Amino acid sequence: MQNKPLHVAIFGAKGYPYVYGGYDTMVKELCERLVKKNVRVTVYCHRSLFKERPPQVNGIDLVYMPAIESKSFTQLTHSFFCMIHACFSSADVIFVVNSGNGPFGLISRMMRKPTAINVDGLEWLRPKWKGIGGKYFYWASKMATKFYDQLINDSDEMQRVYQELFQAPSKVIAYGSNPGLQADPALIQKWQLEKEGYYLIVGRLIPDNNADLIIEGFTKSASKRKLVVVGDVPYKDEFAERLKNIPDDRLLFTGYVKDQQELAALYRNCYAYFHGHEYGGTNPAMLKALGYDCAILALDTPFNQEMLQQGKHGWYFQKDTEDIVAVVEKAESSPEAMLQLRQTSRQGLTQKYDWDHVTEQYLEVFRQLAGR
Hints:
Blueprint: E1 7-11, H1 22-36, E2 40-46, E3 56-57, E4 60-65, H2 74-87, E5 93-97, H3 105-111, E6 115-118, H4 132-147, E7 150-153, H5 156-166, E8 171-172, E9 198-202, H6 211-220, E10 226-230, H7 238-244, E11 251-255, H8 260-268, E12 272-275, H9 284-291, E13 296-299, H10 302-307, E14 315-317, H11 321-332, H12 335-344, H13 355-370
Parallel strand pairs: 1-2, 1-5, 2-4, 5-6, 6-7, 7-8, 9-10, 9-12, 10-11, 12-13, 13-14
Antiparallel strand pairs: 3-4
Helix pairs in contact: 1-13, 3-4, 6-11
């Protein structure tokens, strides 16, 4: 029994190998590397998202849990069932993502299962969680600091926020990046695009990603380039529909682009990448932009300042339409500066954003927790 491998159970994302959002990507990259290091990994999947349900993929054990399907309660009910199941499993450590799952740490504490939680960004400030939703996320994040054995933030700025708001110490482990995926430039012809003939936005069409602000500023500019918007929301939504119906021939909405080669080609061949995300820590779309040699135009937030090393790897704009008009016009008139940003952006991916380094840090946390 001495050689029994460490067993880690993971839930809070959509499952494996489902990859679209940041947490889904992290689970995929982390689990595949942990398995190679002789760690037994169990990932809990949203049953309704998987038509086929193999018990194991790429050496990762999969458990398909149900949920009460609704816009507000799907994730919470799924996580509740997962936590109960994981507490009665042979897992040595339970790793949870998403601060909304904070209260469920009470269950693992009562069952004496060691736990870690990655709490992500400032969920309670996001416009989509107005009112009771925002209050819940604030409370849930606070509960995460009390019930889980190890709190993990993905940026120095988020660590500061949790220390200031909740007096809770945490460990910083960033998201990783896979720089340098080459992509056939011909793939962008699917959308009748030309190399450097467009600006790019990648992200869900929700208010806190500020696509509305960027689109409004861009349409007021004199740019002859297109603005390509990659992403959507998986439900009928007034905000997203309003954006898609803005009458301007320069706007192109691709919806979700799940083919990673096509997505890489869109990043790699854009004139500049717009990043309007407001409330996160380390953002996966920004990491992709750095890794795919993009010139980056980012909303001026402490998180984006940290990721772009205080302007070394991108330009900033304020949350103001006229400021976006100004940054577009500056970019249009500065092709040499845009080229310089593209040529140096990958240098922004320091060791902290390397998936192998990220995995080693998580493994250290899991071993410490299992050894308690």
